[in-house]
């Protein structure tokens, strides 16, 4: 039987338009075959004169629903979409690998036929992949007539070429079930030294990854009846890998270099070769599978790892009658494969050997991209154990598919294992998607949508000679380089790097907006403002295109807000010059184009959401299902339970009262802080305070500002002189020991305040330039309102990270020259260093007798009775936290004490009840 004669009855006649005469450098076809609800073996992409991908992810049969990280599936989808963006001729085909022991085992568990179980899970997989936005051209399955024909045709070629041998072997036989046990119908203890995993399958140990034969297991048990099987002789067919090793090694040595195989794929493949190839059994004693077309073996079927990869071919045959132009066209088609590392040898050794043995001109894999493991919270994702978040779980969270796609791809374990945690998902959503990307897009489009007089009435403004605007020209050059880096990463299938580079363009856009101060330009220099806004709108369009492979629904939504059709894409095709156009983002959208209504693209994930998901998805999937079923039963019982009328009224009143939501405080943007790069021109000690410096700091204004800082104990005088610092410039001036401080420097300190370091801008940062936070839009306040406590509320999230970067939440302090850092304090709080207590006061107890009536706070403190010799000459605010008789509502930066809260100096009045209140305060820290 010749596979070339296969003409499937139900095919889609969508043969690639450029197959007969593919244009140079543009005909990349992506055919992706996903095999399984049962087992997703791999995915394929094909490019005539370019690619044919095999992409693989493998949800095993025990838990046949794809986990939330369908690594091969998602990676294949990104690459397929990218190929289309580049103008390559690409098809993406996927299917479910439905034959094998796993299917029979699951059918036994669910008491149905293998066909019924395949129909069920094929539909589930299709639904999950649709929700994830996977763009298959064909989602097929291996239980088709085409699969039988292609598989048997390849078998006949191998038989004719004498690459198959017959062997008698001992196999485990279950007397209770009256059948030979295929590998996955046996479980036992792994024989590998140091492993001893007691639930190893007969084909592979999930714990150590060792490939096994069922007879190698210690204490084997029949998975169906749990009885101990016995050895019995049976005949099987073997593929002679040792005899094919010459052809195979030549292929591996050539293609691993030409195709840029990932290092883990090379290592795994060479480990197999180093151990020495062995004959591999390709038949099984099962009923569900492709029958072996030989009278002697008519009661046997093909082994799943012989049969399943052939599904890539048969599903392509279901997609197009011209399937041979993809699969038997190695001169014009490149095959790419994506998979987890445990499936590598089947695709670098078994499948290529099978095709090489036919002596036909098959398209063999060129590039393989292999991922390591994705671990879940405290342990490894496990399909067989149900540990982790599965595809249907991800859908049930109501977290948009785009957020899942972004998180899984930015966390793609390309080099080493990575960890999935709910807090990390929250951080990436809030910091990277919401505060960086989402805020940039919303900031630009919202400004354009403002009515004339404050915006552009939703019309893209007209601009002249944008290249003359130096800031815009610099941005264009930077973005052009980033687009080149993006294309380079994607061509090399470095998907994680490609995503990171695209997101960098968003960060550049935020910095560009901030540095341009477009809100001032709008009134002071309208033509420059138009250039900035039209350029920024072009960046929005560019980002929608570059991120479309990663977040397709996001791209559609952004294009909708731009009033563009969903297919209004840049091709990024070199011949069309689109990559060069990226250097001129002001040209992407035409002047006069009317945009749609801007809306937030992403929604914040709260801490309570994280805790909810962590608890909901704890344990195994089966445990969660059992819990949900039990809760459903209880709920059903409660529905049928009669409640007395009186109790019913009480319950109703209680539930109505409980339903009242608490008003949430509006989030304050860090952009309200006017932080600038300053240069200390002069510094000296305060004449009346040993702990204070008085500095004159140039912040780009006509005259330097006078600043008082409590840094004497921490930083020598000589280190302060001629030093660049970060200065908070919009605080209300405050008199400190007789000298008015017109700003404050920012510094980081450790927990006990024994170490303090200034936040240092980059050496090349411009004096007077704003320190920005990419993703946060808005203008700084002229002066922070002390009563609103803007600084105090934002300060809580100012810190240094593990890399010594100064951050607001996870967003770095950013200048045109780079990020701001400290010298050595890791995870320290960033504060305003205004004052310091004398060391003799720390740890002492102070009793304050607060005055009656409403008085200024510093007056209250001066009337205080002090138990120690220290006299309070500083202005402080006191908030008693353990007193029923006194609880004024005050803001401010809290300094933790034993029985009260000590807050930063302030000049606001303190409302007191009309009675005397006494509070004892244990001072634990002083800044």
TrEMBL record:
It catalyses: tRNA(Met) + L-methionine + ATP = L-methionyl-tRNA(Met) + AMP + diphosphate. Belongs to the class-I aminoacyl-tRNA synthetase family. PANTHER family: METHIONINE--TRNA LIGASE, METHIONINE--TRNA LIGASE, CYTOPLASMIC. GO terms for biological process: methionyl-tRNA aminoacylation. This is methionine--tRNA ligase. Residues 618-645 form a coiled coil. Gene3D superfamilies: HUPs (3.40.50.620), Isoleucyl-tRNA Synthetase, Domain 1 (1.10.730.10), Methionyl-tRNA synthetase, Zn-domain (2.20.28.20), Nucleic acid-binding proteins (2.40.50.140). It comes from the Eukaryota. Residues 669-772 form the TRNA-binding domain. GO terms for molecular function: ATP binding; methionine-tRNA ligase activity; tRNA binding. InterPro entries: Anticodon_Met (IPR041872), Met-tRNA_ligase_1 (IPR023458), Met-tRNA_synth (IPR014758), Methionyl/Leucyl_tRNA_Synth (IPR015413), MetRS_core (IPR033911), MetRS_Zn (IPR029038), NA-bd_OB-fold (IPR012340), Rossmann-like_a/b/a_fold (IPR014729). SUPFAM superfamilies: Anticodon-binding domain of a subclass of class I aminoacyl-tRNA synthetases (SSF47323), Methionyl-tRNA synthetase (MetRS), Zn-domain (SSF57770), Nucleic acid-binding proteins (SSF50249), Nucleotidylyl transferase (SSF52374). Its EC number is 6.1.1.10. It is found in: Cytoplasm. Keywords: Aminoacyl-tRNA synthetase, ATP-binding, Coiled coil, Cytoplasm, Ligase, Nucleotide-binding, Protein biosynthesis, RNA-binding, tRNA-binding. Its main location: cytoplasm. GO terms for cellular component: aminoacyl-tRNA synthetase multienzyme complex; cytosol.
